Amino acid sequence: MSDAIRVVVADDERMVRTALRVILDAEPGIEVVGEATTGAEAVSVVRDRLPGVVLMDVRMPGIDGIRATEQILATLAAPPRIVVVTTFENDSHVYDALRAGAAGFLLKRGAAEELIQAVRLVARSDSLLFPAQIRELAARHAPAHATAHPWTARLTEREAQVLRLMATGRTNAEIAERLGVGPATVKTHVASVLAKTGTRDRTQAVIAAYESGFVRPR
Amino acid sequence: MSDAIRVVVADDERMVRTALRVILDAEPGIEVVGEATTGAEAVSVVRDRLPGVVLMDVRMPGIDGIRATEQILATLAAPPRIVVVTTFENDSHVYDALRAGAAGFLLKRGAAEELIQAVRLVARSDSLLFPAQIRELAARHAPAHATAHPWTARLTEREAQVLRLMATGRTNAEIAERLGVGPATVKTHVASVLAKTGTRDRTQAVIAAYESGFVRPR
DNA sequence: CGGAGCCTCCCCCGCACGGCGGAGCCGGAT
DNA sequence: ATCCGGCTCCGCCGTGCGGGGGAGGCTCCG
């Protein structure tokens, strides 16, 4: 497959880099095309390989991940989506990175599955990345305007309705009937939901809905 | 649709009968073909209408649900599946009914969705009915040999494996690869899972897995 | 006024999925 | 010795689904 998602991994720790590479390379449709160990190296590698996604450690010697993010976004015509990777739950640097234009962030201890979903998500859509991990972080860090759920900010109201109905096991036709619209419309919304959640079919979308807390078992 | 599931409702309370009828009649593929208000009437109505499923109240004037169940199962060549309906959580009569050959039981306060699933389940397979409600009951009534999950007793080991993999969003082909068997085999197992869980597609099966606690959000 | 975002709906296409029926193999129970 | 349940596969077939486009109408906002 030539249209695989091209990923560059930037982290000063070798173990982390290889871990990320192994996980992502094992995944069809994702290809790690470069590694970097410093912020400066990250910038040049990205310029060189022109990836779709960059996994960027916040803490690196020399130029750190935040400044590297800034430079990449500022100097490339079609910049990749940058996902910040961090070890700590509430690393204030993460917010700096997000402010600098990062598409989202991940905890290093997160499940491989989430990493993959995250990469797929940022690669496909231009919505912010909000994997399940963000909840624990958001809960203790920004209890102020904590919105209901990770995606709801990015899923439109209609899309959220559709996802909720998908999570009750309904077919597109049934959802259409329920919402009083045509089946084609539902298909469109479903496609948007899949893109924004980084999933490939309705089953995965429903799983993501459960895993993220968007819907809960009764 | 001529092959709808034919249901007979037996309960002495009119409200209950109509509630069940309304819920079930609204559901495509399910048809309420008779009602009874006593155990004796239940037996004759069932003999007359030959339903696939009987919803039987345990407490009815005259012959109660348990004896009606016994008689139906004893005297019909191809007896319907009998689901006992009760108001109380730990009604010891329920166990009598199960011993008499009932296919499962439901709490009257249960969700409409569960009723429907229950009817579909018993109609399609010959496995015992174990909707989500049973857990609360099983928990406090028979803490002894309380098995892990409602269905696991009825799903074979292989089927449970397949369901777990379905709940990770995998396709049949991926499950096959993972298990080291052919795709056709996985299809067979999936079909069994759908039948036993009373679901019509993999998405619904995964939802049921979450709702029953068979799998849990992390 | 003119975009941008959202909702609505259309086409075509390929495929995974699920229903149906059949089959062989094996081990344990009767 | 027979039967049954579980696991393994095979076809065929219809269709729901998802990907790829495009298109018109709406509101909101600069």
Can you put this structure into words, describing what you see?
2 copies of one chain form a homodimer. With 218 residues, chain A is an alpha/beta fold. Chain A has 2 domains: 5-140, Rossmann fold (3-Layer(aba) Sandwich); 157-212, Arc Repressor Mutant, subunit A. In chain A, 50% of the residues lie in helices and 13% in strands. Chain A is built from 10 helices and 5 strands, in the order E-H-E-H-E-H-E-H-E-H-H-H-H-H-H. The first copy, chain A, has helices spanning 14-25, 39-49, 65-75, 92-100, 112-124, 133-141, 157-166, 172-179, 183-197, 202-212, and strands at 5-10, 30-36, 53-57, 81-86, 104-107. Chain A has a 5-stranded parallel sheet, with helices on both faces. In chain A, helix 3 (65-75) packs parallel to helix 4, helix 8 (172-179) crosses helix 9 and helix 9 crosses helix 10 (202-212). The radius of gyration of chain A is 18 Å and the shape is elongated. In chain A, 44% of the residues are buried. Chains A and B meet through helix 10 of A and helix 10 of B. The structure holds a DNA duplex (30 and 30 nucleotides).
